[in-house]
TrEMBL record:
GO annotation (BP), single: isoprenoid biosynthetic process
Keyword Lyase: no
Sequence similarity: Belongs to the FPP/GGPP synthase family.
Protein name from the UniProt record: Polyprenyl diphosphate synthase
Organism: Streptomyces scopuliridis RB72
Amino acid sequence: MTEAKAPVPGFSMVIPPAVFDPELERRLGRGLGRVEARLEACTARVADPRMAEIVGHLLAAEGERLRPLLALLGGEFGSGRAEGAVDAGAVAELVHAASLHHDDVMDGAPVRHGVPSVNALWGNRLAVLAGDWLLGQAARIAVGLGPEAVRLHARTAERLVLGRCRKVTGSRPGADPFEHHVEAAGKTAALFSMALSVGALQSGAPRYVVCDLGEFGERLGTAFQMSDDLSDVTSPSSLLDRAQPRARWADGDGPDWAGVERALEPLPASLAVARTRRAVDGCLARARDVLERLPDIPAREALGSICDSVTTRAA
């Protein structure tokens, strides 16, 4: 009897099933399962069950797990230990989850991943502390991955904070608001780049491959964030999903996508959307150029398919 294949979380959201090499799909499925086990083990470390519920809330509200998927795909470019790429995926997801806790507090967001946000359920103070705790867990795991992984993790945390600061402070006097928004998208670029680079490092990939994957992650992450923001601005269903009274945007403390509208306000709406789509297309074109320098293996094809999915999101 043929063994039924368990669905791989997040695959259908970013990579069409037809793209997958069967062996690659099995490896990624096993790897993502181990990432989930790592995340569950992290929440189990909390001595106070009340805090365990809080820090595990968003982690349990399963998203696409794209960042762990990127770490595992990065690990495909070497021949070393797969567990290191699994840990890299867990680090990336923990940092991402921590940033969501902090973002939701600053935005006053009531919903995340289709469930009530941590701040909506337990208040801002515990939400901030939960985010800090998740960052600490990410650092604890990163230490076991070596000095280079620790350096990349620290740089990513710094860029996440700077990216959020740019959203709060707005563009500098005389600066192009659109370019400022592109810079603010760097926090997603940093996470994508870290996931791919550390995954590749853990697998023993050649140095040039690690660097190229990091550059690919930068381009892909910037395009992904801009396409996500574009969808938030142009999609009625997305606006409803994250609906907040417009009055709360006015002081600059609204959701991220309110910042997009403010950044693009000097332009007619149609020109703003067109400019954003051109920027997304440019980032993806550069990402695909980087892919051409990488070894021709199934993981490279999967990464190219993720580029295609971002193109579709921005269309």
